[in-house]
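Posting for a labmate who doesn't have an account.
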Amino acid sequence: MVKELLKIIWQFIDVILYIVGVVAIAYGCFLINKSMGFISIGIITLVTAFLTEVLATKKGSDN
C-alpha cells in the first residue's frame, strides 16, 4: 500500500514541489510587508499563467 502511494506521489512531485515553493515565497514576502506579499502573488500568477500556456502549446492543444 505504501508503494502504491509513493508511485502516485512520484507522478505529481513536480506540481507538489512547485506549489510548496510558491506558498513559501508568498508567505516570506508577506512576512516582509503586505505590499511585497501582493506583488509576489502577482508575479507568481503571471509566471504560472505563462508556464501553462507554454505547456499547452508543447502538448499540441486545440490552438
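Reply:
Got it, the C-alpha cells are right above this. The chain has a mean pLDDT of 88.
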